[in-house]
Every structure is written in structure tokens, then in C-alpha cells.
Hints:
Elements: H1 3-8, H2 14-20, H3 22-36, H4 47-51, E1 63-68, E2 71-76, E3 79-82, E4 85-88, H5 95-111, H6 122-129, H7 135-150, E5 152-158, E6 163-168
Antiparallel strand pairs: 1-2, 2-5, 3-4, 5-6
Amino acid sequence: MSKKQKRHDNTVPLFEALTRSPVLRRQVETHVEIKLDPPEQIDFLHAVMCQVGMPRRSQKERCFERSTGFASILLEAGKLFQRGKFVNMPLPYGTRPRLVMVHLSTEAVRTRNREIEIGDSIRDFMKTLGIDTGGHEYNRFKRQMEALAACRMILGMSTATRDITINTQSIKRFEAWLHPTGEQ
């Protein structure tokens, strides 16, 4: 290659390109980290949920829809029965409901069972997931689990030969044990 060609060549070496993009750099670093120290357990999640996820932040609306390519998710906030009446729940959001969905999916694949045992209390479940059980975190986690339990989820995907719609709820039955003080 002549000097003239080099002067007009605007390509950037791969490593330099990676350092310019924080997202790409994190992806490569995570890839290397996984290759050097593979996880002890493989986790599972529905293919649509891998492409489009639940809201990252609290939503004012009662419905949430996200699409990418040929995959979509539609969440509808629901209600839970609490203290003798049905109460509106918000949409689930943030990392906790996503972590729970990965855990439930992984356990369903691992045990080949539709029913997943999560422990005798919210605290037990939080410990299983490796989440701090402190006061603020406990209350946030509880609210997100109530929202996830009440929410209706519709997954959609298209292939070259068909369209698929899955109507579901990630939690079919939700029981909250009440203490004599009335707290859950």
C-alpha cells in the first residue's frame, strides 16, 4: 500500500474503535470475562424476553409495549386481592422483575416442572436470588413481586412462515401469608 493510500484510509484499528464506544467496550469485556471464568450454571429466559424486556423505569400508564425486529412484549398492569378487595398494581419495572423471570425460567428448565418453589417468605426468595434483605430493598422487592404477580404478559414473534402470540402470566398463583399484625 502506498503512502498516498494510507493518508486517505480512515479506518480505525479494532481496539481503538472499542475504546471509543463504552457500550461496545463493556460487551467485549463481559465476553472476555465469561470466556475466562465461565459461570457454574447456565440461565434461561424466553427468546422474546431476551430481545425485548420489561420497563426499566416506573410507568404511569397501565400498559407497556416494546418491540424490536420481529419480537414484541405487551404488559398490562393487573390487580391483586388484598385485605378483602382488589387493588390496582403498577407495572413491574427495573432489574428485580427481570432477575425473577430469569430465575423462574431457569428453574422451570432445570426441574422440568411448571411449579417453582421460592421459599416460605419474601426474605427466603431474596436470599436465593442473592439480594440484600434490608428494609428499603425488602419493600422495593415486595412491591415489584406484587406488580409482577398481577401483570398480564403477551409475547409476540414473527418468523418467515408464521406469527405467534403467547398470552401468559409469569405467576399463576400468588399467596401472601399474613402475620397476626396484618403485615405480609
